[in-house]
Amino acid sequence: MNWLDTLMQWLHLSAAVTGVGGLIYGRLVVGPSLAGLPQETRSKLVGDLTTRMRPISFTVIAVLLVTGFYNYLTRLSERPPSYHMILGIKILLALHVFSVAVLLAVPPGANPTRDARRPRLMAGAAISGILVLLLSAYLRRNY
Fold this sequence. Notes:
Strand content: under 5%
Order of helices and strands: HHHH
Radius of gyration: 17 Å
Oligomer: single chain
Number of domains: 1
Distance between the termini: 15 Å
Structural class: mainly alpha
């Protein structure tokens, strides 16, 4: 493994942990902390948090796409079909996380139905993200 492979793997892992960690923190710490605030204060704070998190989320997605594509192409011929099957599941779960991140990047107030589902969306994306990390560890150890 050369230095570029190591850098790409490190960037990929760092971005994944940042994204999943942000979802978990938002769902388990920020969400419950907002529950006791008045609606107007809560909406303003969620809007501010969304504005600050948006560039981080989009950067994480971009880094994961670029490094994931690189990592896949550099090791394509080394893996058996079962690896690609598990990797496909991992990619589908990652796409779920990406889509929720994009939905949550819209400040509250634009879609009241989505605003009410924000906690559930974050929980589902966090679970998918944790499963992505689990599948990554499995693939790393077994292939």
